[in-house]
Q: What sequence folds into this?
């Protein structure tokens, strides 16, 4: 009696089936890219909100006006002090001790987030899309020709890969919320 040889290994079809199953399992196990998009956008929105809160806190602490400057063309938000009539950009971040300057194009954890718009409307004065000041009492305002005009509405819109976050500034209190 002759023994039949047993074939070891797998066929091409078995290999294709195994690779297909592994691909399906890997695709199901990978997190969605939109979750990382959302995280980057949330980081940027929180950083901008913190800059606004910092400007307000410094205004009440130092007892001079502080504010933020939004520059949509350069995707940039800076905190400034306002000891006179001209903003001074010598304000430093409380943690990294670098100038408080959020650059949405290049800062690693927020790179690529777009500053879509900034809109600040003031009671009795022209609207602004660039500056928002806080008085020594912490009230959101703008000063024009020596007169303070209180904020009536304020918002900053950020976007990243089709998602948006809106940072709102309350008119009387300057309270900052991220939506």
A:
């Amino acid at each position: 009696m002759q023994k039949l040889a047993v074939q070891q290994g797998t066929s091409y079809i078995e290999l294709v089936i195994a690779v297909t199953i592994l691909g399906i399992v890997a695709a199901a196990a990978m997190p969605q890219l939109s979750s990382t998009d959302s995280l980057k956008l949330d980081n940027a929105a929180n950083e901008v909100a913190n800059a606004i809160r910092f400007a307000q806190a410094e205004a009440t602490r130092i007892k001079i006006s502080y504010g933020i400057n939004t520059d949509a063309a350069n995707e940039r938000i800076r905190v400034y002090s306002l000891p006179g009539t001209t903003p001074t950009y010598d304000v430093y971040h409380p943690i990294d001790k670098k100038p408080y300057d959020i650059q949405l194009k290049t800062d690693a954890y927020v790179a690529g987030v777009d500053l879509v718009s900034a809109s600040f409307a003031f009671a009795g004065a022209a609207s602004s899309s660039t500056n928002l000041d806080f008085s020594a009492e912490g009230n959101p305002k703008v000063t024009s020709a020596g007169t303070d005009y209180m904020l009536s509405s304020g918002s900053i819109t950020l976007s990243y890969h089709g998602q948006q976050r809106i940072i709102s500034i309350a008119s009387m209190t300057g309270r900052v919320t991220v939506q």
User: Anything to note?
Assistant: DSSP finds two helices and nine strands in the chain. The chain has one domain: 33-178. The chain has a mean pLDDT of 87.
